[in-house]
Structures are given as structure tokens and as C-alpha cells.
Amino acid sequence: MAPALPLALLALLAPGLAVALPGCDYPAHLWCSSREIAVACQAESRCANLSQPRAPPVELSLYYESLCPACRGFLVEQLFTTWLLLPSETMNITLVPYGNAQEKKVGGKWQFQCQHGSEECLGNMIQACLMHEAENFTTYFPVIFCMESGTSATKNLEACLQVYAPQLDAGRIAACVQGDLGTALMHRNAQLTEALDPPHEYVPWIVINGKHTDELEEQAQRSLLRLVCQLYQGEKPEGCQSAAAPKPRAVCKH
């Protein structure tokens, strides 16, 4: 005598049959639409999409300067490439353009002095205002990549917007840069940078899952894709097979 098939399996193999399952009031094609329905219909083992909870993303925060060569290299060659290769649920990225800058209050207003001069302060503020205006990371990150990979990180905003985010208004971003909002955004970035524990000693300063260590920094700069794939606890995405050869580390010190 052939072994009896479980009711759930029988219904999936022959969905046209009217198989009654206690507590299951859903057609077979909906059994894998949620964990609750799968449990009620005794179909968990047949629902690969519900087999395990989704792993949390790797959290990465980059503290950087718009004109620091090491920052530009890491953002363009490591961070952007890794972001392109991996699914969005694998990694969350926070960008904080400020780095080794300093701020002081003059006449009731914040003023900033940047490591690579006033042009860098402008670049930092443009990117802060761009992020504020765009809100969505997938909208503003390609624009920042475009700005940082060009010859000038401050003079190509409009061209980069035309290519990557034509829906954004360059005039609104310029108004932010020239007004109190841009100053407030830079002051917030200064506070975020000054609150780092341990305090940053150079840029790019990379914080992963809330931690910064020399070892993590070294690994991230040599091959960020490899590091993120190692840290991600979920099923490894296809992009993890593309880990490139490690690169030498570079920084901009105080």
C-alpha cells in the first residue's frame, strides 16, 4: 500500500481537488503568501519564501570629505560598486560629509573650515543638501557617485542631476547651500562626526554595524564587497561571487 500524502502536499500537487484542512479557509495558491496562512494550512515545509526570517542588513556609515582623494576613491571604487552588486536588503548605507572639518560660531552663525579648503566645504554642503532634497538613498547616491568620480566634485551637480536624477531641482539644492538650511545640515553632520566613539582619526572613517576598528577599516578598504558578504547572515546573494582582488588602504589624516 502506497504511503498517504500529507493533505497540504496533496493540495499543492493537485490544486483542483477540494481538500479540506482544519482552520484553512484559503485556496492553495495563497498558502505561501504569509506565514500565518501557511501555518493554518500546514504548508510551511512547501513555502521556500517563508522558510526563515530575513537576515538584517549590514549597517555601514561613511564619514568622509568631498575632496579627500582617499574618500573619493573608496566611495567610487568600493562603496558604489558594492551597492550596485548586492540586493538592497543586504546593506544600509549612511553618508556623512564633514570629515576633518572644524566649526565655530561667529555672530550667531556657524562657520566651517575644511581640510581641503573652502571648495571642500562647498562640496560637503552640496551633498548634504542633495541628500536632504532627494530623501531617497537610491536617488541621491548615484548623483554623489557622479560628482565624486568627475574632475570636480563641486561644479558638476547639474550635469550629474540630468543623468541620474532629472526630477530633482538644482535651484532648490542651490538655495539650500546658500541659506540657513545648508548651515544647519552641516552643523548636524559636525555633531554626528564629533559624537563618534572612538573619535575619528582620519577619513574615510567607516563604521560597520555600529563599530569601528582598525581591522574593519582595513578590510573595508581592501574589499568592501568581500567584507559585507562575510558579515551578512542571510543567504549569500549572487553578487558575492564577484569579490574583487583587495586594494591598498588610503586615508586623509587630520
UniProtKB/TrEMBL annotation:
Enzyme class: oxidoreductase
Residues forming coiled coils: none
Cleaved signal peptide residues: 1-20
InterPro entries with a match to the protein in the record: Interferon-induced_GILT (IPR004911)
Enzyme Commission code(s) on record: 1.8.-.-
Localization, UniProt: Secreted; Lysosome
Record's keyword annotation contains Oxidoreductase: yes
UniProt keyword terms in alphabetical order: Disulfide bond, Glycoprotein, Immunity, Lysosome, Oxidoreductase, Redox-active center, Secreted, Signal
Taxonomy, superkingdom: Eukaryota
Pfam families: GILT
One GO cellular component, as annotated: lysosome
GO biological process, one term: immune system process
Function: Lysosomal thiol reductase that can reduce protein disulfide bonds. May facilitate the complete unfolding of proteins destined for lysosomal degradation. Plays an important role in antigen processing. Facilitates the generation of MHC class II-restricted epitodes from disulfide bond-containing antigen by the endocytic reduction of disulfide bonds. Also facilitates MHC class I-restricted recognition of exogenous antigens containing disulfide bonds by CD8+ T-cells or crosspresentation.
Known partners and oligomeric status: Dimer; disulfide-linked.
Name under which the protein is recorded: Gamma-interferon-inducible lysosomal thiol reductase
Organism: Anser brachyrhynchus (Pink-footed goose)
Source taxonomy: Eukaryota, Metazoa, Chordata, Craniata, Vertebrata
